[in-house]
Amino acid sequence: MAADLGELLVPYMPTIRVPRTGDRVFKSECAFSFDSPESEGGLYVCMNTFLGFGREHVERHYRKTGQSVYMHLKRHVKEKATGAAGGGAIPRRRNGKVFLDLELNRDFNGEDYEYEDEAKLVIFPDHFEIPLPNIEELPALVTIACDAVLNAPSAYKKQEPESWEEEIQVSRHARSLRQLDNGVRIPPSGWKCQKCEMRENLWLNLTDGAVLCGKWFFDGSGGNGHALEHYRETNYPLAVKLDTITPDGADIYSFEEEEAVLDPHVSEHLSHFGIDMLQMQKGTENGHHTDNKPRPRVSEWEVIQESGMKLKEVYGSGYTGIKNLGSSCYLSTVMQVLFSIPDFQRMYVGNLQRIFDYSPLDPTQDFATQMAKLGHGLLSGQYSKPPMKSELIEQVMKEEYKVLNWHQQKGISARMLKALVSRGHPEFSSNRQQDAHEFLLHMINLVERNSAGSENPSDVFRFLVEERVQCCQTRRVRYTQRVDYCIQLPAPFEAASNREELLAYEVKRKEAEENMRPPPEPVRARIPFTACLQAFTEPENVPDFWSSALQAKSAGVKTSRFASFPEYLVVQIKKFTFGVDWVPKKLDVVIDVPDFLDLNRLRATGLQAGEEELPDLMPPIVLPEDTRAPEIDEAAVMQLAEMGFPLEACRKAVYYTGNMGPEMAFNWIIAHMEEPDFAEPLTLPSMIDPGPSAGDSPTGAALLGNSPPEESIAILTSMGFPRTHSIHALKATNNNLERALDWIFTHPEEEEESDALSDMADTEPNDNAFSNANSHSDSTLSPDGDASGPRVKDGPGRYELFAFISHMGASTMSGHYVCHIKKEGRWVIYNDHKVCLSERPPKDLGYVYFYHRLSSS
C-alpha cells in the first residue's frame, strides 16, 4: 500500500511545497467565501499556494492553476453527552496536532461541547483521498509538508508586525534631554512651519518646541528641511512628528543619531509643551471616562444599544452580522451600510461570478474579490439561518440555552478584507479603535482606485461644493468648486434648546466639585438640527487670505453651497474635538435629526448680478532667503559629465532630483534633453512674479494654464513617467506630489488627452476640483452634462434617512460602534454579529447619517 501511495503521488511531487518562513497558510477560511473547517464541506488547503477554498470554490482553483493536491480539513462539533466530563474540561480531540492555532468563527465552551478534527489529502480531479496522519505510507517530503501545514500559525499572525518597535533603539538623548523653559505651548491643530508656513510633514523639536518642516521624500511627504537646519544651528537632537502622536506613542527622530528612535519619556517631554498624553490614556481607558462622571456615557451605551429591550433577532438575506475582531466595529458598521446601497450590491455581488473567475492567483490580495466575498456573505443569507423548530422545542423542554447557543447568530469574519484594506495604513492596520467616518472615506478612496475603467459605486456619494470667497475690503468675490463626499455639521452649544438647564447643571457641578460632593445628574445638550445646518452655512473667516485686488493679505470670508446634490448624502455630526491639553473630548449632545431633509434652498447660484470678481492673479511666491549655493552632489555631477553630457545640465539634473544619485539624475537628463534650456546654467530666483491665478479664478480654468513647478515635474519624470502625463497629474492635484503619483497610477496614459479635471474625483475625499457648471439638471456626469467634469449624480436635494452609525464612548480611539439601517420599512440594529429589529432607533444620538435621494415625482 505504501508503494501504491508513493507511486500515486509521484506525478504531483513537484507541486507539493513545504511552507517556508513568510508563507501564509490559510487553513481557517476560504479565499472566496466564509466556509471554514466547521462548514459542511470542510476546507481545502492547496499544498502549493497554501490558500484555503470551500467546496464550491476549490474546483475553480484547480482549473485555473492545475494544482491537484489539497489538504481537506474538517472539524466535527457536537454537544457533550449527558454525564460527560465538565467543569472546564478541555474539548476532546481525535488527532492531537490537527488544526493547531486555528481561528474560527465560534468560541466553544469546553463544558458544553467537544470536537473532533480530521484531515486528509485529496487529489483532483478524481477526488482520491488519503487519510492523515499516514507517516508510514507517504513519501517523506509529503509527510513533512502536511505536518508543516497542520502546525502553521495563523495567516494573520504572519501579517502582524514582528514588533517593529523592537528594531528601533532607545535614543541616547532620551533620558537626559534638556528642555528649555521658554513657555512654548503647542495647540492641538493649526500647525505650520515657523520658517516657510508649510502645513504638512511637521516636526516638533523636543528641546525648544520649534515646529518645522521635514525633508522632501519621493512618497510625496514634502518639506524644505527646516527641522534639519534647526538641528545644525542648535544641536537640539530629538524631534517628534506632530500628526503621529497618539496615546500609544509617536514617531521620533534623532538628528544626531540619524535614525528613528524610541523615547521612553515621550509623554513627559510632550507635556512640557502642553501635550498631555497620560491624560489622554486616562480619559479613554477601556472606552469609559475614569473620572467621577461616568453616567452620561453609561446612559449612552444603554440607549444606543437598546439595552433592556427584548429585541427580536432577524435572519436571512441582508441580516447577517459581522464578528468583532477586537475593536473592529468601526469597519463592521461602515460595511453594513455600504452593502445596503444598491450600487455597491450590483458592483460586487451582482458581478460575483465574473469577479471570482477573473481574480488573480492570490485572491486574498484582490480588492474586488474580497469586497464581493463580504457582500455575498452579508446578502446571501447563507450565514444567517434561523434555528430549526425542533431545536427550539428541545430548548424549551430542557429549560436551558445550551442547544440554542449553538444556533445563535455568529456573524461572519471580515478579517481577510480588513487585512487587505488596512495594509500600510498606520491606524487601520492596528488593533485600536478608529473613527468610522475616517474609515468610510478611506473605503471610498479604495473603491475609486480599484474602479478604473469600470463602474464606480462610490459615485453615489460624490458632489460639488461651491465656495464663495469675498475680500472684506474691496467686496470683490471669487467662486470655486471642489469635490466632496460628506458634509460635516457643527454642533453649536449656544443654540441648545435647554440652555438654561445646562447653565444650572454647570453651576451645580462646580459647587459639587468645590465641596467634594458627588456630581449632579448630568444634563445632555439638546441642539436643533436646523441650528447645525445654519452653522454649516454661516460665513467663515479665511485664514491667510491674499486678495488679488489689493495684491496683499486681507480679511476674507467664505460661504459654501451645493453645486450638485449626491444620490446618497452622508452627514457627519462633529461630536469630537480636542481640548487645549490635547485630550480628545466628545460633545455630549442629542440632535433631532429629521427623517426627511430638503436642502434645495442651499443650491449654489454662482456669480450674481452686481458682484465683481477678484482679478485673476496669484500671490508672489517668496522663497526663503538663502545666499548659499544650492547643495549639489558633485560626485554625481562628474559621473554624469564623464558620460558626455553638458556640465550645467548635469548640475541641474542632480539638483532637481534631490541628490538622489546619478541614476535618478540620468533619467532626468534623458527626459529633458530636447528642451532649449537644457545646457543653460542652474538659476534659482528668490521671487516669482505674480501671474495668472487658479486660486482666484471663478472657474478655475487658470489652473490648467499654469505650468506646475519644474522641480515637481522633474521628480515625476525621473521616475519614468512621461512629462505630459506628469504635468496633467500635477495640475489635477494642485501640485501635490503624493496625490499626483496616485493620480498617475489610477489614470492610464491613453487618457492623457482628456482634460485633467475630468478625473479630479478619483483623488482622495475633499480634494479641490473646479467646474464652471451650475445647471440644476439631473446628470450622471458633471452638472452641465460635460463628460470632462467631475462625475457626479446631480438631482433634487430632497432626502430620506435610511441609516446611521452611532458611537458610544469618550473618543473615537475607544468605545463601540453600532449601526441602524432601515430595511423593508423596519429599522434594524446591527451590533457586531447580532442583528435584531430595532424598537427605539436612537436617531438623536447618531454620529454619521446616511440619506438617499427621493424621486422628483
Automatic annotation (TrEMBL):
Stretches with biased composition (Polar residues): 766-782
Entry EC no(s): 3.4.19.12
USP domain sequence ranges: 320-854
Family affiliation: Belongs to the peptidase C19 family.
Active site positions: C329 (nucleophile), H816 (proton acceptor)
Stretches assigned to the UBP-type domain: 169-277
Keyword Metal-binding: yes
Ranges annotated as biased composition (Acidic residues): 749-765
UBA domain span: 631-672, 707-747
Ranges for region Disordered: 749-792
One Gene Ontology term from the biological process aspect of the record: autophagy
Top-level class of the enzyme under EC nomenclature: hydrolase
Record's protein name: Ubiquitin carboxyl-terminal hydrolase
GO molecular function: cysteine-type deubiquitinase activity; zinc ion binding
The keyword Nucleus is assigned to this record: no
Residues that coordinate or bind Zn(2+): C193, C196, C213, H226
Keywords: Autophagy, Hydrolase, Metal-binding, Protease, Repeat, Thiol protease, Ubl conjugation pathway, Zinc, Zinc-finger
Catalysed reaction, written as an equation: Thiol-dependent hydrolysis of ester, thioester, amide, peptide and isopeptide bonds formed by the C-terminal Gly of ubiquitin (a 76-residue protein attached to proteins as an intracellular targeting signal)
